[in-house]
Amino acid sequence: MDITANLAGISGISSSTEGSTLSLASQNGAAPGTLTTFSVDPNGVINGSFSNGATETLGQVMLASFTNDQGLVQAGNGTYTVGTNSGPPTLAAPNSSGVGSLQSGAIEESNTDIGTSLVSLINVSTNYQGAARVISVADQLVNDLLTMMQQIA
Questions:
Q1: In this structure, is residue 22 part of a structural domain?
Q2: How distant, in Å, are the alpha carbons of 139, 145, 146, 148, 149 from that of 152?
């Protein structure tokens, strides 16, 4: 931000012990304000809205692409770092140079179908219960057979 001050029209400043005063005759800028909200547009530009009504560009989100995505090293918590086989990162603004796009405020959807997973869980649970019953019945049959063999002998 550039600030230009024209001090040519200042008069009445003295070096006396009484002191001097300087007052602002005119202002062509905005009143002071604090950042209240910000947004990210699809091109990665971060815009801030201030309490005084001003809107300013705060920055730019950049995306990185790699020649070999499989060469990235997993760092945990869904993060990756540059690996020896990944190649150097190529930075570009969203929607340019094939690096992808941004969707501000979106939450990544899960790639799991909850309905299919629930049906699969029910099937596995039912199969487990059936197998447990078969083992229980087989155990009871063996015990009954042993009891009968002891009575005969």
A1: no
A2: 20, 11, 10, 6, 5
Q: Looking at residue 11, what is its pLDDT?
A: 62
- The residue written with tokens 């300013």 in the block is 56
Whether residue 19 is contained in a domain is answered as no
| Closest listed residue to residue 101, CA positions, set 44, 45, 57, 60 | 44
Q: Cβ–Cβ contacts within 10 Å for residue 83, how many?
A: 14
Structure tokens given for 37: 């909200």
For the record, the structure tokens of 41 come out as 């547009």
Q: What is the mean pLDDT of residues 40-48?
A: 91
Same domain, yes or no, for 86 and 39?
Answer: yes
Question: Residue 123: inside a domain, yes or no?
Answer: yes
**C-alpha–C-alpha distance, residues 35 and 132, integer Å:** 63
Q: Would 7 be classed as within a structural domain?
A: no
| Residue 120 and residue 85 in one domain | no
Q: Which of 69, 93, 97 is nearest to 82 (CA)?
A: 69
Query: Which two tokens mark 70?
Result: 């499989």
Show the domain range for 48: 35-92
* The pair of three-digit structure tokens given for residue 5, joined into one six-digit string: 């001050």
The reported pTM is: 0.49
